[in-house]
Each structure stands twice: as C-alpha cells, then as structure tokens.
Specification:
alpha+beta; 188 residues; 8 helices; four-stranded mixed sheet; single chain; 9 strands; 29% strand; globular
Amino acid sequence: MPPQYQIRADYDARTIVVYQAYAPAVADAALRAGRFVAPFSFQRMTWIKPSFLWLMHRSNWARKPAQERVLAVRMTREGWEEALSRAALTTGDPAAVAEAAVHVQWDPERSPRGAALNHYSIQVGIGRRLIRTFTDDWVVGLTDLTPQVRKAASLMQNGQAPQARRLFPAERAYPLPAALEDRLFSGG
C-alpha cells in the first residue's frame, strides 16, 4: 500500500509530466504555438496535477464542459521543485495561503473507475505571480493526450480495464528533497 502522502508522477532525470484539462480553444492554441498562449488565462491560478487518474476523475475522462482536451505538460524538475518550495498548503494558515505564490492541496487519489482511494494525490496551483515563469521558463513540452484518454475511457466502459490500463502513463514515486517533504507533508 502506498504511503498516505506521496507524489507519484511520470518523470525523467530532467523533467516531470503534469496534466491539465482545457476547452478545445485553449488546447488547440497551445498545441499550435508549442506553449501556452491566449486564450489561456494568465490572470488566474492554474492547477497542475502529476496524477493522471486524478485528472481523469476531475475531467470525467475529458467529458466535462471546458475540460474536453487533456494535455500532458512536461516541465523542468527544477521548476516543479521551485514551485513546491514557494507553496502553502491550502489547509494551513489562511493568511499564509493568501500570500503564497503557489497553493498545494492533497485530495484522495482515484481508481480508474473514479473511486476514492486511501492515499492522496497532490494538486499544485500556480498563482498569477508565477504563471509566466511556469509557461515561459518551466514548461518544455505539450502533448495532446485526448485520443488516448478517449480510447481508455471507451475500454473502461466496455469492461476492458486491463487494456485501458496499458494506455495510462507510467507513474512512480517522485524523489523529493527532505526540505520539500517536510514543507508539503507537515506544513513546515
């Protein structure tokens, strides 16, 4: 059984993949440009999630309005860890949360069918003060996962869960520096 709080992600030596779901206009513009551009909003917090299944739950497998397109956002690990170093837990002191450039919350991880599990998945909100750094410096690639998501959803609906799981990105425990673990797991 996984630890109660653990970041699981698709990552390599230099980058980590986080997921976001968008309206088609936002996804299409970003994919054409190879980076986030209008109509992506640079004026509000954007939430990134390293858990594929949590985003599938949140977007109802890319079926919720304005979440019909799923992007895999590859960002630098340096940027990821910088964001986490500036984070305040949303369950912490309200004044600290209001001042924080980044918000972190832990929500129950989800099964492929959307059931809440007994361990938690991290959601990271990049605030307005860091959004341009995120989009212009930390993001190194965008991939449209929508066809893969739709195929996996269809397989799940048709009782073919093992085939659907083969389409899920591989995720493993992300090795956080000790100072970040303390900050994220205990609010330190």
